[in-house]
């Protein structure tokens, strides 16, 4: 199946509703610029962009897909729980969670979800953090979902992003 690109009107209507801008008339697409405007024609990228802008209105506007993924995964790994007033915020540092997700993404690429592998990766990269706390925060982030056999990335593009992030941090 294919997803047809969203129309300007659909993008503007959704952005106005989510961001409560009340301005209408093409301002959202103009404000985000042409590079990001091409990305938000995809519903996933539109959702990611509006969530980043809604929760971090003063943040620098992402200018490409990698920057959008970086901003959105940062939001999910660190800020998401802070937006909920009655919930305890995340405490495990973002770098630890990113490292675990990057290694798990690489080791589980094109494999069935694997709980023992996930547990091994957490244990190998937990550092000073409690294993249960890391596991709980990774689940709460929404980047993973439970499938038969273990966790898998909610969307394949997140697995690709974390694989690329892990590769970019290698010295060789």
What's this model, at a glance?
The protein is mainly α and 172 residues long.
Distance between the termini: 38 Å
Q: Given the C-alpha coordinates, what overall shape results?
A: globular
Percent strand equals under 5%
Helix content: 55-70%
What ranges have pLDDT less than 50 throughout 5 or more consecutive residues?
none
Radius of gyration: 17 Å
Mean pLDDT across all amino acids: 88
Note the main sheet. 2 strands, antiparallel
| Biggest sheet, spatial arrangement of strands | 1-2
The class by helix and strand makeup works out as mainly alpha
Care to describe what's here?
The chain is mainly alpha-helical. The protein contains eight helices and two strands; from the N terminus they run H-H-H-H-H-H-H-E-E-H. It has helices spanning about 10-20, 25-40, 45-55, 65-80, 95-105, 115-125, 130-140, 155-170; strands at about 145, 150-155. It starts with 7 loop residues before the first helix and ends with a helix. The mean pLDDT is about 90.
Key phrases:
172 residues; mainly alpha; two-stranded antiparallel sheet; 8 helices; 2 strands; globular
Explain the layout of strands and helices.
Elements: H1 8-19, H2 27-39, H3 43-55, H4 65-79, H5 94-107, H6 115-125, H7 131-141, E1 144-147, E2 150-153, H8 156-168
Antiparallel strand pairs: 1-2
């Amino acid at each position: 199946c294919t997803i047809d690109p969203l129309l300007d009107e659909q993008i503007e209507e959704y952005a106005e509703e989510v961001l409560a801008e009340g301005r209408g008339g093409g301002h959202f697409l103009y404000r985000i610029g042409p590079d990001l405007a091409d990305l938000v024609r995809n519903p996933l990228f539109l959702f990611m962009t509006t969530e980043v802008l809604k929760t971090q209105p003063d943040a620098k506007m992402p200018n490409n897909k990698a920057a959008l993924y970086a901003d959105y995964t940062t939001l999910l790994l660190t800020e998401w729980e802070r937006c909920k007033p009655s919930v305890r915020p995340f405490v495990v540092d973002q770098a630890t969670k990113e490292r675990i997700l990057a290694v798990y993404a690489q080791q589980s690429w094109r494999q069935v979800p694997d709980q023992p592998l996930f547990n091994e990766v957490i244990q190998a990269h937990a550092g000073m953090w409690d294993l249960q706390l890391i596991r709980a925060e990774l689940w709460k982030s929404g980047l993973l979902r439970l499938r038969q056999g273990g966790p898998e990335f909610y969307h394949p593009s997140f697995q690709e992003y974390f694989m690329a992030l892990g590769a970019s941090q290698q010295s060789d």
